[in-house]
């Protein structure tokens, strides 16, 4: 190989490296933009691993929840495995001013059956029934999971409305 041919090969190599550097820079910029968009979106995206509601991927909405909406709220109970606060997802079934009645182990909201309470958990722990007959107080709501085995207001009573964040089911 002659020196001039070698120089041509080296020159082509530099051009190739320069082209690759431009492509790499564009890819890094695109990846950075994608990560920025994901970073903006991710705080509102929640993935659940429970059968309590019919959705596993939910979106935190900025709107106030209304009856029938899914909502997140902080909660803790020994039956949930530890004493740390958990973010639960349930459906808002009864609002302030609605009439909640307990008949046997069934709960009625404005005369419509909304739940039937179980006697024990899957682990055979006894479940204490929340009993109430009257109008739901201001600032409180009755929350139920979509699954009949959900651990919800049937056993824990009212949840503070101002602790709720509306959730929209995606998947």
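^ Assign residues to that structure.
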């Amino acid at each position: 190989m002659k020196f001039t041919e070698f120089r041509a090969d080296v020159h082509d190599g530099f051009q190739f490296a320069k082209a690759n550097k431009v492509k790499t820079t564009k890819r890094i910029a695109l990846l950075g933009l994608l990560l920025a968009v994901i970073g903006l979106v991710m705080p509102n995206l929640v993935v659940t691993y429970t059968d309590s509601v019919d959705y596993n991927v939910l979106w935190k909405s900025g709107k106030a929840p209304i009856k029938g909406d899914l909502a997140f709220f902080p909660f803790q109970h020994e039956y949930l495995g530890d004493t740390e606060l958990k973010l639960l997802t349930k459906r808002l079934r009864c609002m302030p001013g609605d009439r909640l009645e307990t008949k046997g182990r069934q709960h009625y909201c404005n005369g419509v059956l909304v739940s039937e309470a179980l006697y024990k958990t899957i682990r055979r722990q006894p479940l204490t029934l929340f009993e109430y007959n009257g109008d739901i107080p201001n600032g409180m709501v009755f929350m139920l999971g979509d699954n009949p085995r959900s651990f919800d207001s049937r056993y824990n009573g009212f949840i503070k409305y101002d602790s709720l964040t509306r959730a929209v089911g995606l998947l």
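The radius of gyration is 28 Å.
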